Amino acid sequence: MPRGAVSIPQENEPSSECSTGAARRRVLVCAYACNPFQGSEEAVGWGWVKAIADRCDVTVITADFHRQDIEQACAGSDPWAKSVRFVYCRQRPWHYRPTPLWVRIENSLLKPVMNWAYRLWLRDASCIARSLAAETRYDLAHQLTYVGFRFPGHLWKLDLPFVWGPLGGIETTPWRLIPAMDFQGMIYHSAHNFVNAAHRRFLTTPRRAVRAAGPGVIAATSGVRHELKRWLGAESRVICEVTAPDLVPGEPAARSDEPLSLVWAGQHFARKALPLLLRALAALPKEIQWRLTIYGSGPKTELWKRMARRLGVDGGCVWKGRVSREEVIAGMGRGHLFVITSLKDLTSTVLLEAMSQGVPVLCPDHCGFSDVITPSSGIKLPINTPEGFVAGLREAITEIFHDEAQRRRLALGARERARAYGLEAKAAEIRAVYDRVLAYRRGGRRMTDQVLAKSSSTVLSEARQTWFEKSPWR
Questions:
Q1: Which of 106, 158, 198, 403 has CB atoms 3.0–4.6 Å from 114's, for a disulfide?
Q2: Which of 45, 42, 64, 65 is nearest to 53 (CA)?
């Protein structure tokens, strides 16, 4: 057993052939966040592991505290589970873990402490990876979650073809939107913007990982792809980090004379910006009947409840708190419209969870929402200013309330759009990336390395030269 590893289930040893008799690739994955019963990054890791296991035999190094949930999910008869071997990196007291205390640290000015603790986990995971690579001949290595660009892990140092992504975290919060947050949120995200600007210009480890990956860099959104090219000189393929759940058959939830059922879900952090929706609801015409179901919890919960009372909308708000992922998805399915207000995000697991239930989405036209939502599946609003976005929310909710036919068309379109982000589609996209990486490894790597090195050094030189000219705080 590799040093620092625990619980390697032998019944899930990788097979050497798929059902057609073709050789299956052996993939070594590092996914700190990987859980079948949670959302956010944990859902991202779990969805990607399932997609990779479609045609590959996968060894996954993940956090020890996911073990019980993973073993429960793999205890059934799902054939994909027989192709996955989970290796659990033992949790140390100094490792990061998403407990309430650590989550508060992560969303405060003490976030560097969280980053340090996560890097210590990655270091221990790399020891396990080296031991596994010495025991088993893998075709490639894949650094999966967390998706932040500043955390490439250590798999890229192995003598294996390397895939990194989906990547995020390289974009900053637009300065024009920061005033929409409370004072603490403004301080945090302003500081984060300064640190992010410095990291994407001067961190060297992500650049080395990008060179190791070559064509194996995956961006979570088109915006991230642009930033990776701009700051790291990396060409990347966009694959949404979220995998849509199974689609619900039948007709979407109907609405007759009942109030318009709105749903909002997410962690209660400043960047999720629920107050923008509360302000829009307070400004609705009196004849608009509505009910807002709010899922999730966090440091801003009590502040937001007080705001709802101050705005006079608390009577229509139902605060569900933190519940199971299954309960959230079921609650979405009973809603008429799902609303997203995030000021900074990637794609967000709740977006595709809602769409898979046949619920149209009302969201800002930025982040990964711009990639996913089409005119037939939801409504995207410009978010040039917080005030303009609030006005757009008010007008869109009013329109949907009065036009049930349009809402049902969008509901059907949302479910159809979610199909493009299902497990089968993701598995095909991942296979295409793996094919490119293995072809790159077999031939042309030397020439491509020279191009990438030149591109990366050029980007770094230009960034340093224009530091004071382009810096947002100048």
A1: 106
A2: 45
Q: Is the pLDDT of residue 447 over 80?
A: no
Q: Which residues of 366-394 are buried (b: 16+ CB within 10 A; e: fewer)?
A: bbbbebbbeeebbbbbebeebeebbebbb
What single DSSP character describes residue 367?
A: T
- Tell me the pLDDT tens digit for each residue of 138-148: 999 999 999 88
Q: What is the pLDDT of residues 195-241, one digit of tens each?
A: 999 999 999 999 999 999 999 999 999 999 999 999 998 999 999 99
Give 302-311's long-range contacts (Cβ < 8 A, gap of 24+). Answer: 303/182, 304/268, 304/274, 304/275, 304/278, 307/275, 307/278, 308/278, 311/278, 311/279, 311/281, 311/282
Residue 430 has a CB neighbour count (10 Å cut-off) of: 22
Taken in order 275, 267, 393, 188, the sign of the CA dihedral is positive
Task: Please give the structure tokens belonging to residue 190.
Answer: 């302003």
Using CB atoms within 10 A of its CB, is residue 30 exposed (0-12), middle (13-18) or buried (19+)? Answer: buried
Give the pLDDT mean for 373-389.
Answer: 95
Q: Which residues make Cβ contacts (< 8 Å) with residue 103, sequence separation at least 6?
A: 267, 298, 299
Q: For tokens 């390397």, what's the residue?
A: 162
Spatial contact of 31 and 45, defined as CB atoms under 8 Å apart: yes
pTM of the model as a whole: 0.85
448 CA to centre of own chain: 29
Show the tokens assigned to 384: 């040039």
Tell me which CATH code domain 260-419 carries. Answer: 3.40.50.2000
CA angle 441–442–448, rounded 5-degree value: 55
Phi and psi torsions of 175, nearest 5°: -60, -30
Identify whether the C-beta of residue 325 lies closer than 8 Å to the C-beta of residue 331: no
Structure tokens given for 310 = 């101050």
Q: Could you state, in order of their start, the residue ranges of all structural domains in the chain?
A: 5-243+424-470, 260-419
Instruction: Write out the two tokens for 16.
Output: 């050497």
Q: What are the helix (H) ranges across 287-385?
A: 301-311, 325-333, 349-356, 369-372
Whether 260-419 and 5-243+424-470 are alike in CATH topology: the answer is yes
